Amino acid sequence: MTHDQFNINLQTGPNTNPRDDTALHISIRPRDGVIIRNSIQFRSWGIEERFGGCPVQKKTYFDVTITVKPDSFGIAVNGAHYCDFSHRLPYASIRFIHIGEGANIDAITVNMAMMLPFFNPEVPCLGAILGGLQPGKNLIIQGTLTGDRFNINLQFGPEVDPRDDTALHLSIRPRDGRIVRNTYVGQCWQDEERSGGCPIGVGDPFTLEIRIKDTHFSIRINNEKVCTFEHRMPFEMVNFIHLGAGATIDSVLETF
């Protein structure tokens, strides 16, 4: 940060004077002790959001991470969650990022979740489920178990640290002989379900299928039903699948 103000704009077009519609305007102002968030629509500013202070100081290094969630932008500063900014414009309309003066920029990186289907990903990995979940949709994960724990999370948003609300957490634990099921709400784990065994061990290939039913998830491994998990949260809001370490993955598919 080299000056007292540095702006970032995620906008629908390339124009800056006057500025095109802007889904997210971030103005870092260390002298004022604020990071302002706002939007521009039809050349008019929206209502500013100013709470949260300013963890960035002039003449110091900083990084800003913007995560697109289903209902908001998640903003992290220097690796720590700073705030959420609810969508006011369709985020799919964003085509440009404009970086203003006030800082020396080392890098701008765009990380996107892979769209299903995808093949041979490095884990951990994040996949985007186009259209979310609905009854009749099946998620199929094929791979080989390599560790004593392999986690699968069907979650609302893309954040993993802290993790966004998660409608289904599967933790495959061959050493313990169980597959743990749970949900994660408001950064808190709920009640685990541990009944049933674990039909695969380290080194075993597997095909894991999650079938979305009206009232529950049905989990099958290698064509055998292992367990069910009743819906505790609106499964329609699931937009991402996160796969942890502990397996090599051949493919992640969705079928109807």
Can you give me a brief rundown of this structure?
The chain has no helices and 21 strands. It is mainly β and 256 residues long. Strand 17 and strand 18 (216-221) form a beta hairpin.
How are the SSEs placed, and which strands pair?
Elements: E1 6-11, E2 22-29, E3 34-41, E4 44-45, E5 64-68, E6 72-77, E7 80-86, E8 96-99, E9 114-115, E10 118-119, E11 125-128, E12 138-145, E13 150-155, E14 166-173, E15 178-185, E16 188-189, E17 205-212, E18 216-221, E19 224-230, E20 240-243, E21 247-255
Parallel strand pairs: 9-11
Antiparallel strand pairs: 1-2, 1-8, 2-3, 3-4, 5-6, 6-7, 10-21, 11-20, 12-17, 12-21, 13-14, 13-20, 14-15, 15-16, 17-18, 18-19
Features:
seven-stranded mixed sheet; elongated; 2 domains; 21 strands; mainly beta; Jelly Rolls; 256 residues; 0% helix; six-stranded antiparallel sheet
CATH architecture of the largest domain: Sandwich
Report the CATH topology name of the largest domain: Jelly Rolls
Radius of gyration: 21 Å
How many domains would you count in the coordinates?
A: 2
Characterize the biggest β-sheet: 7 strands, mixed
Strands, total number = 21
The CATH C-level name of the largest domain is: Mainly Beta
Order of helices and strands: EEEEEEEEEEEEEEEEEEEEE
What integer is the average pLDDT?
Answer: 93
Helical region count? 0
Amount of beta strand: over 45%
Protein name: Galectin
Organism: Anopheles dirus
Region (Disordered): 1-20
GO molecular function: carbohydrate binding; galactoside binding
